[in-house]
Amino acid sequence: MVHALGTAPIKVLIVEDNRDICENIAAYLEKHNYLLDFAYDGISAMHLVLTNPFDVIVLDLMLPGMDGLSFCQKLRTDAKVQTPVLMLTARDKLDDKLKGFEAGADDYLVKPFALQELHARLQALFKRSHGKTDNLLAVGNLTLNSSTLQVHRAGRHIDLNPSCMKLLQRLMEEAPSVVTREALETLLWADEHPDGDALRSHMYKLRQAVDKPFDTPLIHTVHRIGYRIAGGTD
Fold it and tell me: Cβ(89)–Cβ(60) under 8 Å?
């Protein structure tokens, strides 16, 4: 295999029990500066991950021995391995995707998929995990890049309006400390605070985006004082 001068190949573990899919992936990716290893069941994959460094793991959901969700959960909670995981599955319902993200997957690709898209997603995961983190705020499984204003929770992208983005950034910068209502109101409206409880409305929208799709709430109300963000992973 020929690699670009000075560019190290991306090391990827493909965990997939369908040999034809593995062959198709290999034929395409090996032309694009990847070093590939393969496992055809979850147990073998876990052994490979614990004994070899990988940049990204491509993980099928339906596997013999140990299914993809169980593999991902054990990888994150037991083995404490944070290698990015791209989950492959024929299940395209939102609930199935959320289960994958909550198990620890970083991205999700539904079968059948274009090999070009797989390549693009692997590149994005590799760059994200090896890029600069100086501007990355993190609380539990929630991240906010203060340079790009990209928000992710358990690998899922979260869209926020400008007001909610300001609130979330301040809460994450101060985490796990409480940020007073007055400080948040000043952040949004300077010295011209609106009548009524407009802050509560914005916090409701923020919670709908950041907490509602997940099992574990991160944003907490401190009665009569303000709000804080703290917590673990889902």
Answer: yes
